[in-house]
Write a structure and sequence with these properties.
Length: about 400
Amino acid sequence: MIDFENVSKTYPNGTNALHNVSLHIDKAEFVFIVGASGAGKSTFLKLIMREETPTSGEITINGNKLSKLKKRHVPYLRRHMGIVFQDFRLIDKMNVFDNVAFAMRAVGENTATVKKRVPYVLDLVGLKDKMKCKPSELSGGEQQRVSLARALVNNPEIIVADEPTGNIDPELSHEIIELLTRINSMGTTVLVVTHEHELVREFNQRVITIDKGEVISDSATMHRVYAETESVDGDSLIDSAAPEQEPAKEAPVAEASAAENTLPVTPNVSAEPETEELTDSVAAKPEEIAAVEALPAAEEPQEELTDSVAATPEEIAAVEALPAAEEPQEELTDSVAATPEEIAAVEALLQAEQTEEAPQPAEELIVDDNYDEITFDGACFAAESYDTEALPHASNDAEPQTAATNRE
């Protein structure tokens, strides 16, 4: 569509507006041209519209080389272009309809086509209800949209907008760029010159940056380089750059990864199938067996601790140290695990019988009809297993043999 080949422009006063610019713009492409004031943006557009001719280089538009284009053919070139000016350039004496229709009448369109085409374009830019208004009765944004409608009315192939948002507020600027984006989606090539970088960043379009007459950046070039980089087989580059590894060095890595997969992640006594496989496997390592054997037995149920072979000494001692007072009182006399005090009392009685010592004082053997227990040498026995009426009350002339019999 548009080609610049080593284009330079120097004005008669010696100003170098452009220097060795080369670029290509495709059909139906949307391009932002950004740069500071005096960078050469306006000169770039004037060269496209053939208002200026390049000092050197060649410009080609739709296959036509502008350096060979005669002046009488320039108006026909511009019929394929729609120009949107920063200062609107509307005719104050004409209403909105006539300002837009003026562009069609200038190229010789008939009245019927004008009456049909102008309302359609004004409706496209949202000003169909303003057709009878004068430019002075419109806001800045509305005047800019009238200028845009005038550029669109002849259905051009290229829209050239020189600072279309320079004289309107940011909200209206966003609306104008959105409108240009819709026009571009219909197949029209759009070139927008602006210095509003924030507005450019909101729209994902190609951006050409000009500084001091030179193109310093072009997003299309960066996208093309990125695409070419993506098309290269990255795996082949990595394989060619990586040194060959010896087979002997790969075996330890494989074994290490296999060992990591077989080691238990967390100790779990309940996972009996995994434990049996580790201890019985021929390929199990000492570290794995030690890890399984070191699993704490405390996680097993409490009633199995005393019978478990794997119970630790501390656990056995904790079970044996449980207080005997928690067991039922009636089981103490028949329990094999008698307390040390009871055993000592019985041994003392047996020793007393063997040595034929005097019987214990009567007050140490107390039988009370008001209680269900017999107290003897600090030991308490349940009275329900004895016949309290058959027991004689203690007296000074009690025979030692009877007392011994009762003790037994």
